[in-house]
Amino acid sequence: MSHVNVWTPKVMALLRGGNATAALAQIKVAPSVRDLQQLRAAFDAADLAPRLPRVDEAIADQIDAMSAPRLHRSP
To answer: How far apart are CA 65 and CA 69, in angstroms?
Structure first.
């Protein structure tokens, strides 16, 4: 079954509409690394990085956080 990505266009609509705060909140609760990578590609294609450096950093930080192996703790 194919993964239909509806998250990326919604976050891009927030960014294009000027609501970076809501977009940052969505980036923090991203569904997967794949979705974040698609957002990164769309963000770069739209050339929004110069205008929104905090969003660019948040995407990179969240990709790093979600890509890292999880630390396990005993209960």
So the answer is: 9
> What are the per-10-residue average pLDDT scores of the chain (75 residues)?
79 95 95 94 93 94 87 60
37 CB-contact burial (10 Å; exposed 0-12 / middle 13-18 / buried 19+): middle
What is the value of pTM for the model shown?
0.84
Gap between the Cα atoms of 62 and 64, Å rounded:
5
Residue 13: which of 2, 26, 30 has the closest Cα? 26
Burial string for 10-19 (b: 16+ CB within 10 Å, else e) reads: ebbebbeeee
CB 54 within 8 A of CB 27: no
- Say if CB 57 and CB 28 are below 8 A apart: no
**Hey, is 4 helix, strand or coil?**
coil
